[in-house]
Amino acid sequence: MLRWSTILIFFVTLFLGDDAIPQTPTAKEIIQKSDEKSRGRTSQGEMVMTVIRPDWSRSVTIKSWEKGDKLTMLLVTAPAKDKGQVFLKIKTDMWNWVPSIEKMVKIPPSMMMQAWMGSDFTNDDLVKESSIVKDYTHRLVGKDTVRSQLCYRIELTPLPSAAVTWGKVLMWVTVGDYLQWKAEFYDEDGELVNVMNASAVRRMGDREIPTRLEIVPVGKRGHKTVIDIRSTVFNQPMEDAFFSQQNMKRLSQSTR
Predict the structure, then answer these.
(1) Can you tell me the distance from the alpha carbon of 40 to that of 206, in angstroms, rounded to the nearest whole number?
(2) Domains along the chain?
(3) pTM summary value
């Protein structure tokens, strides 16, 4: 029986070729698929960011619009003291409209590693100035089980020419579904800075994605930031003209 099974496998492989044997995607293909899964061609939605500290916590409600990896708009709708702030990214440029002083502030690249609105996310995390597909090399290290999910473990190293904020990123992407399930962010000295975990997979629009992202800074007990995605729709028509400084002011006024 074993001999005939071996012969059968040989002929199936001969006639069907490589398609008969599941092929492991390359590290870059895995990252690209996971990026496309989380972004789509366009996306728009609403999320709540909760900043947790040992003695206090605060929540911020945000509406978001994104087109590809070059255009992002974020509008803060709550609480009252932050309502109306708008953040815009066009390619590698980022601006912040501050309604309380009616001033447009350009955020320089040197500030992309700074905390976003007092959270554990950086400016770069929120507007995704750097591209995990284009700005890094990718190496498939192996597979791990992370919180009951079998994942590819991939090491991302920045290209010499890339203006990125991290010295290295380790990312765990679920096998089959290509969900970005866990990530570790290291500085240029190789020290672990932040750990991000995704959870609460739900259907949003035409796909299932994690709807909770939790980031914990290393060495800071009682500190973490949680993003809960309330709603997201993907691949709806969105004009480039929407992403403008003029529209930042219009969106800000809509919250009054």
Answers:
(1) 10
(2) 24-253 (2.50.20.10)
(3) 0.86
